[in-house]
Amino acid sequence: MPSRTPDQHTAHRTDRPAGSTGQSAGPAGPLERERAHLAASRAALRAMREDVEALDISDVTANWVNAEVLQRQIDARIEALADLSGTPLFFGRLDLVPDPEPARYYIGRRHVHDADGDPMVVDWRAPVSQPFYRASRKDPQGVGLRRRFGYTGGELTAYEDEDLTDPEETEQVSALLKREIERPRVGPMRDIVATIQPEQDEIVRTGIEGTVCVQGAPGTGKTAVGLHRVAYLLYAHRERLARTGTLVIGPNRSFLRYIEQVLPALGELAVRQTTVEDLVTGATGVEVRGTDDPEAARIKGDARMAEVLRRAVRAGVAMPTEPCVVVRGSRRWRIPAHELEEIVRELLDRGIRHGAAREALPQRVAHAVLTRMERAGEAPDDRVQDAVARTPAVKAVVKAVWPEVDPAKLVLRLLSDAAFLAEQSEGLLTDEERKAILWAKPPRGVRSARWSAADAVLIDEAADLVRRTPSLGHVVLDEAQDLSPMQYRAVGRRCATGSATVLGDLAQGTTPWATASWAEALSHLGKPEAAVEELTRGFRVPREVISYASRLLPHIAPGLSEATSIREAAGSLRVRPAAVEELDAAVVDACRAALAKEGSVGLIAADARLPALTEALDAAGLPHLVPGAETDAGTRLTLVPARLAKGLEYDHVVLDEPAAVVDGEPDERTGLRRLYVALTRAVSGLAVVHAAPLPEPLAGGAGGGGSA
Ligand SMILES: Nc1ncnc2c1ncn2[C@@H]1O[C@H](COP(=O)(O)OP(=O)(O)OP(=O)(O)O)[C@@H](O)[C@H]1O
């Protein structure tokens, strides 16, 4: 039941600058009434929490196990009902067109109800909240008035109305929305529930059955959308996902640290967040201590390796050459080799997992024995079949014909036994490719092997050939463009019976095997039917900066169009040449200038430049952090290796020596893509400082930004 408003509300625009309280905010003014509703909602939330805290479960739980489970659920509920001081309880209000009575909903991060159970705040994920994000004058969706609230330090200080019933009134950019989006960045990533845009909301609320792939330019909100989609799905399908699980996969640990607080802020505390590498090492138990050269990594990540592994697993299966003779009492039952072979071939043809087939084989052989017994006039039952399956003769057949496969040992053999690899990759890999992936010095065993990240994925694939990997209910895969086909398969296994949200940008692919087309990636993931959506409206990067970075697009991703930007921020780009011997000092200057402003500062540089820059910053007395570490008012500067910049953002970015960033990569296209990533991390301003000539695509053309 929506809360009813006895006083018929009159829609009214304040249109005053966000943050101001305006003149209408007298004691009985609308702002005061909204504050009163906030206070009442807070009290109601407190009461909800106290109700749960007061629950006495001693009567209802028959044993201590139940009691413990119930207590855990209660504790989680109490935690979920906390009133977080920095997080406003509601951020919006919808007044529906009276039909027949007016109805009003306050939209917030969680559901709050009064003592009668009537809602005081509705969860943003509830169906009634959807028009808050999607309704427009063209399509009001039953909404008469949409109100957005502005907060300052937890205080409700402003509101802003849109009358959706008047199609004549022109759409205006909401000042509160703009203020929220343009708020300086300090700490880790924040949720965007108050300002999700219609095109983003469509993706967030896609049904759980559908896999969605989002291609989006830097800063279009892919990560934000993916995280809010998990929160939405958990709300809409709580029980199902509690059973099957959800997972968020990101490119590296510093990125995960950057995003880790978004879901908890939305009340979702149980979503696992990991990298592909941690996912497969966790599943296989191998430790990654080695690296591959790019060519070896490319081949190991190629989808052809899936077939090589499939063959290698099957290669262990030998055709029986001896009959199986089972002795029971005074009788001997003989299954000839050719009949055993038929059983083996039938199991192979069924394409079931190696381990499952190995478990089925003794029963099949026993069944053949039972058929003979029946033909001889006996009447054996299931227990006899089980007993036969356990006889030494049948066990010996299984051992000889269908040996157990240890996934890591199998991969170790493939990478160290040239003849074995040649046999299993016949017609799939070339001699050079085989040479590229064979270990020069084979390790002694699985434990001493210096496994690479790509090896761990191969072992994970082999493990799945032996035993099916359990599938989760939903997987969000961020920065997907960097995955190899074999990595896509590893992720695909984890959502084989669930769905996925695949997020990425082809222009930001910086691995040698980076995705060339989403259709191909989705087929490796096992979701070829997924819809590909495009986001082009940028929320991070100021217009001048994104158009500067977009000069690289024809060289790195010719098919993609330039993103737009909602940030005007004139003067946001500075390109500053420096003499070689003055480069470090110029970079330090640029950092100081950035630190003089509000917000976080990221100094992005090629790996090779890090020692010199660390020294220069230390000498200048500028404390700095590593990516992913939490910034605070004292230390707002992070020194970011270009290779870790992906997915992150800083209010002000100082980019050191673009040419060095390009040179740090094995080929020019990858180098320019790395540069594109680095150029698109800034929220408010970018200063490019260089001594070497700028890479050609940046140097050319007019409007290269102001010089400082
Ligand atoms: N609707 C929105 N309201 C407010 N802020 C938004 C909105 N959408 C995105 N943002 C903000 O814009 C910034 C960029 O979003 P996000 O990191 O999700 O983009 P991305 O597409 O993943 O970028 P990249 O490709 O660089 O990884 C973030 O600070 C995010 O909070």
TrEMBL record:
Using the UniProt annotation, give all residue ranges assigned to the region (Disordered).
Answer: 1-31
List where Basic and acidic residues composition bias occurs: 1-16
Q: Its domain of life?
A: Bacteria
Where does the record place the UvrD-like helicase ATP-binding domain?
A: 195-542
Q: Where does ATP bind?
A: 216-223
PROSITE patterns named among the record's database cross-references = UVRD_HELICASE_ATP_BIND (PS51198)
Q: Which UniProt keywords apply?
A: ATP-binding, Helicase, Hydrolase, Nucleotide-binding
Protein name as it appears in the record? HelD family protein
Taxonomic classification: Bacteria, Bacillati, Actinomycetota, Actinomycetes, Kitasatosporales
